[in-house]
## 1
Amino acid sequence: MDAEKKEAKEINKYSLLIVAVIVLALIACGGGYYIFHQNKQMEQLTQSFDLEKEMMADDLNELSLQYEGYKFSVSNDSLVAQLSTEQAKVQRLLEELRTVKSTNAKEIARLKKEIATLRKIMRNYVVQIDSLNRANEQLKVEKHEAEKKYRQASSTAASLKKEKEQLTERVTLASKLDATGITVTPVNSRGKLAKRIKKMEQFVVNFRIAKNVTAQVGEKEIYVRIMKPDDDILVKSRGDVFTFEGKEINYSMKKMIEYEGEEVPVTMYWNIEEYLSPGTYRVDIFADGNLIGKKSFELKD
């Protein structure tokens, strides 16, 4: 009886030991599974943080490129300096992101928040730059309009100047004296018409200063040049000159007349004291610095 009790007691001990072993085995398996599951979750979390870091780095690189592009698109030095400052902040955050551990969730969250702030600042700059660009475009339009108006004004001024010059020229031409009815008569010593050169003693030059109500009235110096066939001028003295077109030229005869705007007859005499050859001669008449008439005539031997 005692032996049976002893045997039963031994069996109970072995049963309890087996149960304990099984329980410990189950606990070990459960702990291993938990550790495996935790490691798996940590690995997934690390991969998620790595992916988030890459996306954040892409965002920062994009921001940096945007700042760089806007720096070249604006001409405002103050704004360019501000953009450079913000771009430097982006570069600093990019360096911090590269060094932070993927498991440092708190630091990654901070960097993510700063990136969001930088994006908000960027949007403000975009609005400011767009406003400046619109203002610049408006200024370009206004400048173009101003230049157009200036060209139109310049063209109008040039046109008015030309019209004024043309009007002045017409007035000048209108006020210019005109010698009409010019005749040159060679006469002999008795004042009769001489047809042969050897009998000619004098040239009688007759003409009329035409009526002109626009011409300036008063005393007028009339100059006459008698030109020989060889283009030499008949003169009594080489010192007898007057001004024409900015040059001093010789004259043959001169006469002072009183002009009141009405027609004035003029007669001038040239005493022939030089040798004359046959050919075509010409008389040019000047007044007020203008050539007011001319007449050619023939002399025969």
## 2
Amino acid sequence: MEELLFLLMNFVFVLLMFQICFFEINFNRVKKSDNLAWFLSLDKSFNYTRTGYMAFVCFICYIFSSSDPFLSINWILYFVLFLALGIVADAIVQFLTLKYGQIRCKKQIEYAKSLKQEVLNLKTYNDVNDEYHVSMKEYEETNILRDYVTPHDHLAFLSIDQGEFAKNYAPLPNVVYDVEPYGDIEQIKENLFETPIKPTTLTQAQQMPFKDNKIDVIMNQFCNYEKNELKRVLKPNGYVILNQYGTGNYQELVDMYMPFKMKGEWNVQSCSESLESIGFKIVQRLEDFGYIQFRSIEGMYSYFKRVSPDLSDVEKYVNFYMTALKRIKEGSTFKLSTYKFLVVARNEM
């Protein structure tokens, strides 16, 4: 029994040293990346959940190390003992590592908890806050659209803003549609009630709700699209204007939630090549590399609530808001990169 206890203690000590080394490596990496959620993950009660994992590891190790015949009485008895020691040792190490982390990071945990509470309080914030600065636009999509629309055209907006962009555009040609793939069509109709704009959505087959060669100009305002559908509904020599957010938009947010870079990029070049591949001729290409500088977390929340409602979900993006709040407190501002581009293409049948 003493020999087994000595073996268990040595096993625990070696595993613990390894775990502490890995913990310190993660600790230094997390400090540099402002991953406050990592500190919050330490603020929990111990709950051992690795029994299955350790049983598998012990089984693999024992197969290669045991000299007894496979599944013999001795093999089974010693495997059960080896498995019990492995699970007990791992549980002790996991518990001690958690306690070490809670002591080692006590200040960071308390700070992260206070930031999280401040962020969650935003859910009751209803004021309009303009404590942010948006960089100057490199192009104005409304003016560009006017260059391609004539009074007798059939114009179709493709957007996700409940008809706001279409509603604020002037002058409107004779026939105007607003296609909203994701919005509440009844709400959109109400929003556009006093305008000549005809609100609609995609068909059940996710197609544009128009006959072939029906539309003179399609204005896509930050909406997903199917390029062959755009070509189908456009008249010969009709124009599609694509105003899109690119891969580099909100880069700091993307880096936080998608640390591994995805293959391919969505930018003015890839968009143009995609349209050219089905017979469009590129007429105009513009890019806007900008930024939004927030001076308060309330300003950031107010901005996203108006511009991108999904990002105003503070529970969903709590780590992002906490990081922004930390940087505002430490450096007075938080800067978020933006990237959008515009492509004008002509349908050459």
## 3
Amino acid sequence: MARIARVEILMVPLLPKTKRTDAIQSFVCQETVIVRIHDAEGAVGTGYSYTIGTGGSSVVRLLADHLAARLIGREADEIERLWTDLKFHTHATTVGAITSLALAAIDTALWDLRARRVGLPLWKLAGGAKDRAPLYTTEGGWLHLEPQALIDDALEAKRLGFGGAKVKIGKPRAREDVMRLEKLREAVGDDFEILTDCNQAFTVDEAIRRAHMLEPIGLGWIEEPLPADDLDGHIRLSRSTSLPVAVGESIYSLRHFREYMQKGACSIVQVDVARIGGITPWLKVAHVAEAFNMPVCPHFLMELHVSLTCAVPNGRWVEYIPQLDEITSSRMTIEKGYAVAPSAPGLGIDWDWDAIDGRKVESIDVTEGDA
């Protein structure tokens, strides 16, 4: 075991590769918060989290002002203890997005450090259930796109072996959503999953009405139909439709996930490693979902989620949205529509530090003298 000697905190803004719109917002910038943890023996682990355009500087300040110094001198391998201590230290701002994003950057760095020290890829260290998982694409399903563009992207994904495509819904008129999806279904056939994402846009009555209209299309799921804190609304919707209801990218607590599963408010869990607070709580949510016989289909962060999806037996899908290409030298391996878990020790992400240095807008070092 080795004690933590230094913590680096960086922030790198990344613009999306394509225009991304949904029913409530546009994805304008990924503020990528990166944490590097150095131990006293010279080993380094790198973790990260993200925002979609706001709050990144707040995550950096929470890390720099309140969390990083508390790591100095601690045993890097005591990941559960460190996560619990930091969560308690931030109890006045927990549960919340900024705190979870900060904890996630630290926790993923600690897991990367542990995996590198023992010489194992993350997917094996965290469970090793399988070495690959099927992919679906979201990059061609944005709300502003015309139906033919949706069709062209989905057909190309199908040609490449992908198992499905996600389409954003939430047009002002429900019939327009239905029309777009009917045309897509006709083009791709019945052997390709169509997944839909509402981005929390609907009221309960509208979600129920639209779900009934969409049922004949045979969708794989309806994602985030209601605000994430509307547990009762999700229960009512789940009881009223045959469509699987997917939630998770906007849920920040293991206990909130438990409530959703326990009360029948969802049937698919989309836990996001950054928004839940790291790999440590992500695995707990995944195992609880397994106990409820529910699949885990994590949101975004494909470069990291491929390893976690492969770590657990109920990991069903990896979401294809490349976002780290400009600051990494590695690419997720894809074989016949499947994401292949990295074989290298650690998270399996090769960071391009020259590119990061050229793009970073924040850079803070915390060492033993700052503790």
## 4
Amino acid sequence: MRIVWSEQSVRWFQNASRYTGFHRRLARLLLERVPRRDTLCDIGCGAGLVDFELAPKFDHVTCVDRVPQAVEAVKAQAEALNLDNLTAICQDGQVLTGQWGTVTALFHGGREELSRYYGLARDQLILVTHGSDKGTFGPARRRTAKHIHTALMRDWLEQLGMACDLEETVLEYGQPFPNLEDARAFLQAYAGPLEPEELEEYLRRNLLETGDVEFPYYLPNQKKIGIFTVRK
């Protein structure tokens, strides 16, 4: 499924990132692949959560997304964090021009975009993919398809003759909730549509009570990812 960016979906991503540390851990893995940390461009940046972790390590970070709501969320958070070396622009990555030391595309892109993205990078193109072709939230028969996954990306890069390094790993990236209604809304958005009985049964079996005041409920998720590094 394609993410529908809104105030609610941005909040879900921000809460999950803060609660699990997913983007902080992912940023560490990405930094291992970038010896020269001058400029970075994240194409299809979404809420820009990994870029806020990376920005203090780079001279400048450019966040690109074609969805205005996502770009405005990045700008607001960058201002709140006083990141003066991060720029967010609303543009389709397929028509983007320029050059950066490192170009990243996380859970985004397709075979037709790879050559263009590669051309924008001076040193390396880093691609992060879903580990499998199905999501992990919701009952098995309701899980959404993932259109950018590790096996498919490996095939695309081979077809294009792009040599790469691949690391496959697993990071915790579940979803915390302030209340049960938020949990129900999340599942209907990312694994729905679910019948009421199906939804409640899934929550009964999988939702954890945390004892945390801010987020008393948590839906665990071990997220498998692939990290491809294509060097120039």
